[in-house]
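Lab notebook: predicted structure, single chain.

Context: the supervisor wants predicted structures on file for every construct in the current expression panel, including those that have not yet been purified. This is the next one on the list. No modifications to the sequence; it matches the entry in the shared construct table.
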Amino acid sequence: MTTEQDIGRVAREADWDDAPGLLDGAMELTLGPADCDLPYWITQVAQGTLRGRGAKGHAPEAAVPQFLREPGPLREALILEFGFRGLAEELATRLLSDYVAIAPGIPEMEFYATQLIDEARHARVFRDHLVELGMPAATLVGDIAELAADYRRQILDPVVDFTRNIVREQADFAGGVAVFAIVIEGVLAPAAELSERKWTPLSPATGEISRGAAIDEIRHLTVAATILKDHLSAHPQYLPRLAEILRSGRELWDRLPDRPFVLHREELFQKGMLAHAELIGDYEIWPGVRMLDTTPAQRYDMAEAWTDQMAATRMAYMGIPAGIAAGQQR
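Prediction complete. Output recorded below exactly as produced.
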């Protein structure tokens, strides 16, 4: 619980400069809903992480390079990435209202109310960044809907329907937490980590937006893991139900054709990256590997490996047997 003594101090996991990367934070930190209550969000997130970056998700001095305002593969890749992510965050915001409604206690209610605001903020800063790239603000929402129509129909809508059935129709709060944290964000978080690493050397503004979203995701993943750990400790008979949800979620993701969508924008990024190689130089996207030496498939496969690693670590923390975790992520 945040106290008056905490006001003015920013916790490491919320500090812009000191927070770990998304993967390290999600695998190493331990936070619960009582740690991340409403006062925490106000003092540590709104007045901490977002200080000076609340309006656009990046500091005013973090520039958008001119080449991202002009037609080209890098601009197209970023429009696709942030357009798709912005729509996904909008749908996540709407889903989270159901979590707030059925939260079993005040700590869980406050935490998911703050996560709802986080996701709404992510959706807005992703959209606003597209305006910074030159997309017209007046038609932006409709333009994104048209741009992402196939992605929504093939990827997002099935996930929303699956989640809503568990949370709204079955009123299973713990099951909903598992779906959001292990299935949805568990798969998408490594892609967010990759986004931050990719864009940082090319666009200060884009890199900062991704950094801020990643700091939030650390909190979302770690608190959800603690909720599930405590629920399984108090209700060990829930494990078979959780196992079935995880298996169903795995089967859903295995059916969804996300790879072509991701590889298409990674191929556009590849062309643009090579065209601006002088800005990237020897920058390493992960230890020992220069970003310029990577391919679209290698970046996709690395995000998949991060997904597996993060899932195994967090499920072990939650007390979920390895046999259930095996094969959970693609």
